[in-house]
Amino acid sequence: MWIADQWKDYEVIDCSKGEKLERWGNYILVRPDPQVIWDTPRKDPRWKRKNGHYHRSKKGGGEWEFFDLPGEWQIHYKDLTFNLKPFSFKHTGLFPEQAANWDWFSEKIRLAGRPIKVLNLFAYTGGATLAAAAAGASVTHVDASKGMVNWAKENAISSGLADKPIRWLVDDCVKFVEREIRRGNHYDAIIMDPPSYGRGPKGEIWKIEDAIHPLIRLCTKILSDQPLFFLVNSYTTGLAPAVLTYMIGTELKRFHGHVESQEIGLPVTSSGLVLPCGASGRWEA
Asked: Phi then psi for 258, rounded to 5 degrees?
């Protein structure tokens, strides 16, 4: 498992009974987590002294309950700064476990010894975009949500990266890649974090089990002759790491690199164990 264990401003304090107790900077949140199927005693007093609690509804969705939580606040990861706010379906605008991947590809970019062009698809609030730009890459950031792209721009400004070569695009990721193929544009590295399910701007249905392999195949057509890395993230239970390895290995075979996939996770302070948080597939030259 790849573990994001370099955080100072974020911590999984405990997890039990379908929920996790987290510290986000100076604030304590309780949020649901479907992976937490164990029923261990909740001994930490912060379970009762939280600043925010997302209650999941049995009918689907849910709602936040706040106890002295600001509308927005910041946390830091190394030299990066993220603006957080609680919004729809339990999220805060950041997936801390992804720091394990940020550290991996940042080192590859820094050691490449040449200019690196990165394409970040389904780029959300820009964690991977900022990490790649801070490491020295030029980045094309694509997400279908204008609100998310604006949030990512705010994170770039807060991180002192506003002047870095980042292209911010509100677009359908698949259609963007198809246009890049026609334009003849190429990238040295591709990052994608596709949702399990979603709808495009014109109501197109995205279901990851059906769409992920064709998208990986499509993206290989815009890789440069010397690609540096290819990263696929998945939060879909059915997409095991071995499945990611097979898809990526099949489509990038001609580049003669190495592919490995693992679960990604976060350390849990109370138990000393690791909470699994999805999976990532990494190809590298």
From this structure: -125, 135
End-to-end CA distance of the chain: 21
Buried b or exposed e, range 136-147, using 16+ CB within 10 angstroms = ebbbbbbbbbee
* Amino acid making up residue 100: A
DSSP 98: G
Output the six-digit token pair for 255: 């580049």
The pair phi, psi for residue 118, each rounded to 5°, is: -115, 135
pTM here is 0.95
Look at residue 274 and give its three-state secondary structure: strand
Instruction: Kindly state the DSSP code that residue 130 receives in the 8-state scheme.
Output: H
Digit-coded pLDDT (tens) for 141-185: 999 999 999 999 999 999 999 999 999 999 999 999 999 999 999
Strands 138-143 and 166-170: parallel
Are residues 149 and 181 in contact, defined by beta-carbon separation less than 8 angstroms? no
Cα 266 to Cα 78, 94, 120: the distances in Å are: 17, 13, 23
Q: Which residue has the tokens 């249905």?
A: 205
